[in-house]
């Protein structure tokens, strides 16, 4: 009998290995199929053809860190810059996996994409090993993973959403593993993971509430006071990172007017402002959601998927709670995971309405939906109605209504753009020399104009050309009004202007050296005179 039990356990290990391998192949398979369906391959993905300008900032900052330890020029907005070093408005912790990847394997235009795929693969494998799901649960997970096309879109991008998703998937796998077999080192790892996530994006503090609950349940007051200390340490670390390493953005990254209203208007005045803001922002939220149903507006489809996932989590949490109370059972591990994620969804809903711009904040909800898929796949339901409902919604929102190329089209290489970038890279390499003695320095910064006024009207800058800047260069994203109003007192050495625009005219009148130009961009050096190409 013992021999049979030993054999069975060994066979279970083989089954688990097969499951882990199959799920580990799923991210790459989805990427390959998506590209093949459009007649392309993964190697055809080309970031300089993307319309997401955040990718440029992330890519060039990581490039500077990999080559020099930190960018040699400032990253900022309207020439803002961090008090220390040279990072933009977002925490550099957000892209630490890319930094490690670049240090190990080098950094090029494919690096963030390959790292994203590897991260998601590792998350899938670890989730299976930690949770040990059944074949039916893996079937549900596979279906929802494939239908939620944002997984593929963000893997094939230079955006850090996949980093957040991967860490959260591992976080919940580890949490469920801890609940099945409690070990203190697992609890420590949960605090580490949730702490890192909080340093990446502050609203991720919601996920730290789970290890806090688990520690308090395990150790009582000792766990409570220990958790408060950890929360204070993580919150303080984020504040220091934001204060010293973050450049000021055009507008606040998140709004606190609903808090200051209590000090400015009194308690009851603050309450009125709080609820009125919830009402008006909630009205806009629903309006965008309806537009998502009608026209496929990306923010609206994100809101729709988020609301449905939150409803599923709340319903299942309530149903499991009543069942366990009726049967007088202890809280099951899956129930605790469901309840916590439902709480995070509700908390993020309030944070979105009170603290973020709705359309810009919508992309943050995609991470919640993505990790929700993994929790839903573990729900112990008989007919998987909720999974089927979510699958149908994902197919509708993210395939049938995915009509906006800006949000859904993977950027592929074109000969024209590739030649343009390579030409600019060669020309700028000849003309632009990094200042290395006192860094970071505005000597190593290029101004990037969001748009400018020409005879044909307002024209947007072809900012993708800035991928060709030499490694270590900083970028200051500026409104043209800022540049024209402060033209005599600008700090950045280089200006990437729009040919025929107001700023280009001012540069020519000032006699700034035109280092290189084409139909899309004119690159000036303020420290030199005359044309050089």
UniProtKB/TrEMBL annotation:
> Which of UniProt's keywords are assigned here?
Membrane, Transmembrane, Transmembrane helix
Its transmembrane ranges are 16-37, 82-103, 109-131, 162-180, 187-215, 221-241, 253-275, 295-315, 335-356, 362-380
In terms of domain of life, where is this protein from? Bacteria
Q: Say if the entry is tagged with keyword Transmembrane.
A: yes
In Swiss-Prot or TrEMBL terms, this protein is called Uncharacterized protein
Keyword field contains Transmembrane helix? yes
């Amino acid at each position: 009998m013992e021999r049979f039990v030993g054999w069975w356990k060994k066979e279970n290990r083989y089954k688990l290995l097969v499951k882990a391998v199959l799920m580990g192949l799923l991210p790459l398979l989805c990427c390959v199929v998506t590209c093949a369906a459009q007649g392309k391959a993964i190697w055809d993905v080309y970031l300089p053809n993307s319309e997401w300008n955040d990718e440029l900032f992330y890519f060039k900052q990581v490039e500077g860190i990999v080559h020099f330890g930190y960018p040699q020029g400032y990253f900022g907005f309207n020439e803002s810059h961090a008090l220390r070093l040279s990072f933009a408005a977002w925490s550099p912790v957000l892209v630490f996996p890319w930094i490690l990847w670049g240090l190990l394997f080098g950094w090029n235009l494919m690096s963030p994409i390959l790292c994203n795929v590897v991260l998601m693969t590792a998350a899938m494998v670890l989730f299976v090993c930690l949770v040990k799901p059944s074949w039916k649960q893996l079937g549900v997970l596979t279906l929802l993973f494939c239908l939620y096309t944002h997984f593929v879109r963000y893997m094939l991008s230079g955006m850090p959403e996949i980093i957040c998703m991967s860490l959260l998937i591992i976080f919940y796998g580890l949490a469920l593993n801890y609940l099945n077999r409690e070990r203190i080192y697992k609890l420590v790892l949960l605090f580490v993971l949730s702490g890192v996530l909080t340093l990446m994006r502050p609203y991720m503090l919601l996920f730290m509430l789970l290890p806090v609950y688990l520690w308090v349940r395990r150790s009582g007051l000792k766990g409570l006071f220990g958790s408060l200390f950890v929360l204070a340490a993580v919150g303080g670390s984020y504040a220091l990172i934001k204060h010293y390493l973050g450049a000021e953005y055009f507008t606040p990254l998140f709004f606190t007017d609903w808090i200051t209203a209590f000090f400015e208007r009194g308690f009851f005045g603050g309450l009125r402002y709080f609820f009125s803001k919830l009402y008006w922002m909630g009205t806009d939220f629903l309006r965008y959601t309806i537009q998502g149903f009608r026209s496929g507006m990306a923010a609206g489809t994100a809101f729709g998927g988020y609301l449905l996932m939150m409803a599923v989590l709340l319903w299942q949490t309530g149903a499991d709670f009543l069942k366990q109370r009726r049967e007088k059972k202890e809280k099951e591990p899956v129930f605790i995971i469901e309840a916590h994620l439902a709480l995070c969804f509700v908390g993020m809903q309030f944070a979105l309405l009170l603290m973020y711009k709705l359309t810009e904040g919508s992309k943050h909800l995609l991470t919640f939906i993505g990790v929700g898929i993994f929790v839903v796949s573990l729900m112990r339901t008989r007919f998987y109605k909720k999974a089927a409902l979510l699958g149908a919604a994902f197919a509708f929102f993210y395939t049938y209504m995915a009509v906006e190329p800006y949000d859904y089209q993977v950027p592929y290489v074109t000969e024209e753009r590739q030649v343009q970038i390579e030409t600019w890279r060669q020309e700028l390499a000849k003309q632009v020399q990094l200042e290395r003695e006192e860094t970071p320095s505005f000597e190593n910064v290029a101004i990037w104009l969001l748009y400018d006024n020409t005879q044909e009207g307002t024209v947007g800058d072809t900012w993708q050309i800035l991928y060709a800047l030499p490694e270590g260069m900083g970028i200051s994203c500026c409104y043209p009004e800022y540049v024209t109003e402060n033209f005599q007192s600008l700090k950045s050495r280089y200006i990437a202007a729009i040919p025929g625009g107001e700023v280009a005219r001012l540069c020519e009148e000032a006699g700034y050296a035109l280092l290189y130009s084409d139909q899309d961009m004119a690159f000036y050096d303020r420290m030199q005179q005359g044309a050089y190409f």
